[in-house]
Structures are given as C-alpha cells and as structure tokens.
Specification:
This protein is an all-alpha fold and 573 residues long. It has a domain of 136 residues. Helix content is 78%, strand content 2%. The protein contains 22 helices and two strands. A two-stranded antiparallel ribbon has the order 1-2. A hairpin with a 2-residue loop joins strand 1 and strand 2. Helix 11 packs parallel to helix 22. The longest helix is centred in the first third of the chain and has 102 residues. The N terminus and C terminus are likely disordered.
C-alpha cells in the first residue's frame, strides 16, 4: 500500500509538468505570433501616419501660399494704381475723344484742354501727345497736330503709326490709313514682332482695314512665311513651340490620387505612371474643347466703328515695358490661387503665358500665342481661327507626338501586391482567376503557418500507447497491478487529449485569422481590379478624343477664316 502511495504522486507530478510545459510552449507561440502581428500593424500605422502628416503639411503649405497670394495681389494692384494710374486715365480718354467727336456734344476747346492736361501729367508716355494731335486734328489746328504727332512718333513710332492708321480708317480716310500702315510695316521684322502686330493682324483677319490695306498685309504675311519656310530648323522649332504650349495645358495629377487601391498595392512608379498618363490623356479632351470653341465661336455683330474702337482700346490699353514686371507678378499670384497654392505649377503655366507678353517674337509664335493664350493676347475669334489654320501642320505633328508618347507610357501589364500575394493583370478580365489564385495562396500560407503546431511523434504515440499499461495491469491479475496500469494509461491518454485540444485551439485561431485575411484580401483585390478597369475604360475614352482633335485640325483652311467689314467672305487661292 505504501508503494502505491509513492508511485501515484510521482506520475501525477510528471503529468502536471508535461501539461504545464505544453501550455507554456503553446502560449509562447501565440505570443510570438501576436507580437509579430502587432509589429506589422504598428509599421502600417506609422507609414499611414507619415503619409497623412506629409499630406497635411503639403495642404497647409498650399493654404498659406493662397493667403499670401491674396495679400500680394492687393499690394500689387495698389502699386500699379499708384505708379501707372494716370496711364489708365489717358487710355480711357482716347475712346472718349472719339465718341465726343462722333456725337458733337463736347466743345473743341474742351477736347483740346483735356488732351493738353494729360500731356502734362504723363511725360514720356506716347499716347498723351497722340491724343493732343488727335484733338488738334479735330480742331483743324495743323501746326499743333504736326508737332504733337512728331513727339508721339519720337516716343513710340510703331504704336503711334498703328494708332493713327486705325483712327484714319475709323473716319473713312482710307489713303491716310494706308499711308500710316505702310509706315508701320516699313520698320516691322516678321521675326521680331510684339503684341502690337497681333492687333493689326487681328484687324486684317476681321476685314476692318479695307481692300488696299489687306493686299499690303497679305503680301507681308506671305513673305514672312516664305522666309521662315526656307530656314531648315524653323519647322522643328514651330512644332516644338506648339508641343510645349499644349503640354503646358496638361493638368497635374491630384495630390490625393485617383486610384487609392492601386496607390497602396502597386509599386510607386506604377501608380505614378497611371496618374500621369491619365492626366495627360485628359489633355486630349481639353484641347478638343478648346479648339472646337475657337472654330465655332463668333464675334457679336458690330459696326465697323465699334470694331475699330475695340481694336483701338486694345492698342491703348497695352501696357508699357515699365508696367510689365508688376503685371507679371500679379498674373503669377492669380495663377497660384487658381492652382490651389501650387506655386511650382503656377510658375510653369506662367512661363508659357509670359511668351504672350514677350517684347518680340516671330510671326508664327505670335499666332500660336493667339490660339493658346487668347486672353493675354486679347485675340479676336477671327485671329484665333486663322492662327489654328496656319499652324495646322505643326499642331498636328506636335499633338501626334504627345499622343504617341503618352500611349507608350501606359503600362501594358499592371503588377500588384495584396498582402504578400504578387500577381499582374492587363485589364482586369482575369479577375475570377486571380481570386482563385489568391484563395489558393492564402490556404497554402495557412497550412504553412499551421505546420509548427502539429502533435509531436511522442504525443501521437500517446493516442494508442495508453492501452499498453492498461492491458499489462489487467494481465497481471492482481488489483494492485490493474489499478497501476489503469492510472498510467489514464495519465498518458489525458496528456494526449490536452495536447490535441491545445493544437486544435491554435488551429482554430489560425484558421479564423486566415479566413479574415481571405475576405479582406479578396476585397482589396476586387478594389485593385475595379480601378484597373476604370483606368483602361477612361484611357480608351480619352484616346478617342485625340482622333476628334486630329479630324478637327485636318479640316481647317486659313482662307475660310478671313472676313471683310461687310460680312462677306474673301476666298484666297
């Protein structure tokens, strides 16, 4: 009996220690796995937090830049008004003198006095003596008119010649108008034109200058084009000019991105390529709308005098070189506000727009500026149409280059990673296959994960070995040996049951974890596929817009856009 008392506690102690060791090993594995998952989650949270912080900082920086731009705009307007406000008054006076003469409601002495006062207030400005000459001419004071005209020519020969050409045309003095135009064109170089040339070309294509003047201007334009065409590099330079002008209209990809799933589950270079090519493809639609508006727009019906007055206003309002820096700063701040605080984007747009304000450029550059920057050039619909038609071949070539470059940059296959599952697709048509592959991959990962949590060889042996001591005890026949065999067998079988329960619990936990991972992964995969399908669909739709642009440009003919003052169409062969 004493022997029985000694053996049973020893077996119970061994059983308890084995159970404790098994529980410790299982708990350790679970803790290690939990720590690994926590580290992965923490790493993901840190990366997300970093991205959110950078996005917030960039957004705040853009907001601050917008506020600064608004403050600078106010200061720039005040400085322009302070330094050049009297110029604006003189410019308004030009239209006033013409209307007063038409209506005959202002005394001639009043006109002369007002013009002379402006002469005193704006020393060095060409328009002041030009208005004195105009008032003296209306009053039939030839000597004063000649002196004032000479001073205006001295201050700015080109502007003064063009001003009086338009004024004489307005009053029906065709010969005098032609004389002033000849003087203006005599000093004009087709390779070094300023914005004033755009004004006279605009008047020409609108048919405002008369038949004789039209012949003069047409011969000049033909001569310029012929001269340029003889220069070997001119065609390439013209094509490059249109290429840069059109590329400048390409919008920057949105900061938050158009494809949130692809941004996370593809390589950064891939997601950036998708955003960039889509933004560039949207240029086709933008150009299609822009060119279509140019071709279809019509100027409101107006009399010859009204149209000439509008041209004269543009000439008078064209700011001088001294005003240009302030106006350029003002335009930059407006662009910063328009672009949501992105100064780099605003400066790129300004670099393209500033060409419209350059002091000198060749004739073809002037036309491209009129087509792409009509607001800065103050180009009429007629001039915009002619610019498109004359530059048609260069525009087509440059546009085709843009389309070809963008098509080449579109990824043919898009590689992605869902968790650690790497694969690729072209257009998402293999979605079901990818889902099956992902499920298979997830099951394989689950089985690999479960592999360390199998019963040991000893524990597997316990499933049957417990019968041996029981049978031996029964075979002994005595109660002592029977009790001892049953106790030993029970201890061994209990160790097996506990080990199996522990492994089953771990397997259940792993299975639940990978089932959750499967559902989340399938959702991510479907999101990636959906965005790829959206991308391909949108790219195809926008690519079709490129054909519309090509068809529209190919149908242009310069001659069809040159009108006449009486509304008829002058066909040139």
């Amino acid at each position: 009996m004493s022997d029985t008392i000694y053996i049973e506690p020893d077996l119970s102690y061994l059983e308890d220690r084995l159970d404790a060791l098994g529980d410790f090993v299982g708990a350790a594995h679970s803790e290690i796995h939990a720590v690994g998952r926590s580290v992965d989650d923490l790493r993901g949270d840190v990366e997300t937090l970093t991205q959110d912080f950078h996005a917030y900082a960039a957004k705040q920086e853009r907001t601050n830049r917008i506020q600064l731009a608004e403050i600078r705009l106010v200061k720039l307007r005040q400085e322009i008004e302070h330094r050049f406000g009297h110029y604006a008054e003189i410019r308004r006076m030009a239209r006033g003198i013409l209307e007063a003469n038409d209506l005959a409601v202002v005394r001639q002495d009043t006109l002369r006095a007002a013009a002379e006062e402006l002469m005193l207030r704006a020393p060095g400005y060409w328009l002041a003596p030009a208005l004195v000459a105009l008032a003296a001419w209306i009053n039939d004071e030839e000597e004063v008119a000649n002196r004032a005209c000479a001073e205006a020519l001295h201050r700015d020969d080109e502007r003064t010649s063009l001003f009086f050409a338009l004024v004489c045309r307005r009053f029906g003095r065709k010969e005098a108008s032609l004389h002033w135009l000849q003087r203006y064109f005599a000093g004009l170089d087709g390779g070094a034109l300023d914005r004033k040339a755009g004004i006279v070309i605009d008047a020409y294509v609108s048919g405002l200058l008369g038949r004789d003047a039209d012949g003069l201007i047409r011969r000049r334009i033909d001569g310029w084009i012929d001269r340029f065409s003889r220069v070997y590099s001119f065609a390439d330079a013209q094509e490059k000019r249109w290429y840069e002008a059109m590329k400048a209209m390409c919008s920057a990809p949105p900061a938050e991105g158009s494809f949130p799933y692809l941004r996370v589950h593809t390589d950064r270079s891939v997601s950036e390529a998708l955003e960039r090519t889509l933004s560039c493809a949207r240029l086709y639609e933008k150009l299609s709308t822009h060119f279509q508006q140019i071709v279809t727009q019509t100027a409101p019906p107006r009399t010859l005098k009204q149209q000439l007055d509008s041209i004269l206003e543009r000439l008078a309002a064209d700011f001088d070189a001294a005003e240009k820096p302030l106006h350029m700063e003002s335009i930059l701040e407006k662009l910063v506000i328009h672009e949501g605080g992105r100064e780099d984007r605003a400066r790129r747009i300004l670099a393209e727009k500033v060409k419209a304000f350059d002091e000198r450029r060749d004739f073809m550059q002037l036309l491209s500026d009129a087509a792409m920057h009509p607001q800065e050039m103050q180009a009429s619909p007629a001039l915009q149409k002619m610019a498109l038609a004359l530059g048609r071949d260069s525009i087509l070539s440059a546009f085709r280059d843009i389309v070809a470059e963008n098509r080449a940059a579109i990824p043919q296959t898009i590689k992605f990673r869902i968790l650690a599952f790497d694969n690729e697709t072209e257009d998402g048509s293999n979605e079901e296959k990818l889902l099956r592959l992902f499920v298979t991959w997830n099951d394989l990962k689950r089985m690999i994960r479960m592999r360390p949590y199998e019963l040991s060889s000893q524990e597997k042996l316990f499933r049957w070995i417990w019968l041996l001591p029981v049978l031996l005890g029964l075979y002994g026949g005595e109660v002592y040996w029977t009790a001892l065999g049953i106790a030993a067998g029970a201890a061994i079988f209990n160790a097996y049951i506990k080990a199996k329960k522990r492994m089953d619990s771990i397997h259940t936990s792993i299975t639940e974890e990978y089932q959750k991972q499967e559902e989340e992964g399938k959702q991510m995969l479907r999101g990636v596929i959906a965005e790829i399908v959206d991308y391909r669909t949108e790219i195809a739709r926008l690519d079709a817009e490129s054909e519309k642009v090509i068809d529209l440009l190919q149908g242009l003919n310069p001659a069809q856009f040159i009108g006449s003052a009486d509304g008829s169409r002058r066909v040139q062969v």
